[in-house]
Amino acid sequence: MTVQVRPPRSLVGVFSPVRTTGLADEVAARISGAVDSGLLVAGQRLPTESELAAVLGVSAVTVREALARLRAEGVITTTRGRTGGSFVAADPVGALARAQERLAGMSKVGLSDLGQHYEAVTAHCARLAARRAGPADLAELRAVIGPTPDEGGGAAALAVAARRAESEFAIEVATIGRSARLAHEVVLLQSELGPLALLPNDDEEYRRAAEVARGAVSTALAARDPDRAGAAMRALVGHEFAWLIAHRAEAEEASGT
Asked: Are residues 218 and 111 in the same domain?
């Protein structure tokens, strides 16, 4: 019997059919990217193997192989019994280490290209949202502007929480824009960005500037000003990628490569 699953809208891009059916590494990368981007949080229970197979459009064998890889990498843990299942591991420090490794492996051109793509999509979402936002939408958006609450767990955990707020804000703006395709694209791009977005959120100065920038987007939406909303969102995303590009250059110079 096919299991019908309705994931939260912020996870639609995570638990939707993969582009190439039957590739366990793509399933693993999709889930790992969602963990590193904050869409899946520490302690969160994943759908069952049969549920994942149904929503991802792959076989149960493929899902089982992907989950085994994620367990080996320390991304998830699995327990047995009535209350068992697969859960996101609580390892924000490991996520930051993966982020550093991912950044070191990206070229400046590739990073810039990803940033331009993400900036273009999110800016258009903001323009649409400025035309379509209602009072309830704006109230939901203001709830994820910041500041990020310190829930304990140190600087690494704070970076994860800040990244989650950043993700939720972008998805909320896309959702307000009432374009399912664009909202889906935002989630997929966030998954592709994955752990990279943790790095700037480990910087207190960046977090404060990002909160101000999110506030500027929200103000433009409330004013129903599409041009200002689009420009504010471009500034927000541009700030993130400028930080990443500068940080990559610094690391490259320090290593002498």
From this structure: yes
